[in-house]
């Protein structure tokens, strides 16, 4: 953590969605979260994504290109009209995190050389599979593979460090990112199998960050009745909260599955509040 300097930072992060890959309502689902959300748009949740804005550099970046990227791009533009999008950082190649790249193609935005920062494996996947390869052939995107653990300098005041985390890896490996502004750091980890499978200690990573946005796909074993939760590769919120009790970091939970009771007004949500942990909210922002 860095000491706060005088004046507000020119850099901030904004949450552009909080749901797991498939959003809420999820296709064809009439569960207690999805059915009301289909009727009341205020209950809808976009797939998780974070915008990073540097007002001094008049630039913005987005982490993850979700299936809701079309709207999230516009949210960023409305928020910071003077800051143009300078790049997209991908965590991994699962539907909630990269399908939005299609919006950069000639049928849509027809972007010119939009930098896409991702792992070498994710870059190789995009390069060798359509329709993504077409984005490269048309010059819509410019793949910029990074090296894990090496800070990427996005602007004079903002850097981002990718860290590899364990997560089912059919098409690519998976990254979490730590974004550092002049004053504060934010850790973003939407998908990970289990905290104990990571070669880092989530507690120390969070303790060393000011804000931590963490995978909260499932609350507990009750989310998926009949499924053996030991086979579900995501940390449970109950476990995450126990590990982080007393951390100085501000923790916000993200990547919630439509079955997660924290999406609704439930006793689980009251319990979470009592632990001093919050569910992230679309539009929530943090100065960095
Ligand atoms: Zn995901
Ligand atoms: Zn549902
Ligand atoms: Zn995933």
Number of strands: 14
- Strand neighbour order, sheet with most strands: 6-5-4-3-2-1-14
Q: Determine the strand fraction and express it as a percent band.
A: 15-25%
Ligands in the structure? zinc ion
Low-confidence stretches: none
The proportion of residues forming helix, as a percent range, comes to: 10-25%
**Mean residue pLDDT:** 95
**Distance linking N and C termini:** 11 Å
Radius of gyration: 18 Å
Structure classification = alpha/beta
Write down the secondary-structure element order: EHEEHEHEHHEEEEEHEHEHEE
Number of helices: 8
How can the largest sheet be summarized? 7 strands, mixed
Written account of the structure:
There is one protein chain. By secondary structure, the chain is α/β, with parallel strands linked by helices. Helices cover 20% and strands 24% of the residues. The chain contains eight helices and 14 strands. It has helices spanning 34-39, 69-79, 95-98, 120-128, 132-137, 202-207, 237-244, 267-274, and strands at residues 11-17, 49-54, 59-63, 84-89, 114-118, 141-145, 152-153, 159-165, 174-180, 185-189, 211-215, 250-254, 278-279, 285-287. The chain has a seven-stranded mixed β-sheet. It is globular. The model has no long low-confidence stretch (mean pLDDT 95).
């Amino acid at each position: 953590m860095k000491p706060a300097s005088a004046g507000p930072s020119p850099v901030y992060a904004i949450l552009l969605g909080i749901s797991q890959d498939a959003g809420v309502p999820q296709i064809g689902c009439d569960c207690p979260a999805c059915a009301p959300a289909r009727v009341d748009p205020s209950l809808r949740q976009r797939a998780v994504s974070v915008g990073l804005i540097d007002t001094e550099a008049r630039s913005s970046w987005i982490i993850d290109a979700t299936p809701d990227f079309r709207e999230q791009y516009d949210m960023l533009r409305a928020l910071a009209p003077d800051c143009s999008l300078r790049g997209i950082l991908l965590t991994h190649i699962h539907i909630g995190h990269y399908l939005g790249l299609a919006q950069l193609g000639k049928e849509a935005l027809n972007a010119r050389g939009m930098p896409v920062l991702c792992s070498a494996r994710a870059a190789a996947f995009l390069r060798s599979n359509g329709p993504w390869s077409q984005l490269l052939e048309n010059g819509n995107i410019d793949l910029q593979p990074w090296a894990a653990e090496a800070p990427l300098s996005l602007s004079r005041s903002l850097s981002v460090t990718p860290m590899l985390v364990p997560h089912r890896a059919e098409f690519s490996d998976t990254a979490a990112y730590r974004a550092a502004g002049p004053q504060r750091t934010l850790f973003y980890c939407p998908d990970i199998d289990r905290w104990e499978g990571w070669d880092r200690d989530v507690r120390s990573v969070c303790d060393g960050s000011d804000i931590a946005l963490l995978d909260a796909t499932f609350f507990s074993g009750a989310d998926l009745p009949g499924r053996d939760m030991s086979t579900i590769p995501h940390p449970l919120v109950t476990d995450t909260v126990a590990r982080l009790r007393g951390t100085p970091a501000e923790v916000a939970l993200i990547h919630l599955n439509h079955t997660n009771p924290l999406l609704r007004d439930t006793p689980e949500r009251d319990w979470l509040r009592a632990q001093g942990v919050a569910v992230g909210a679309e539009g929530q922002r943090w100065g960095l």
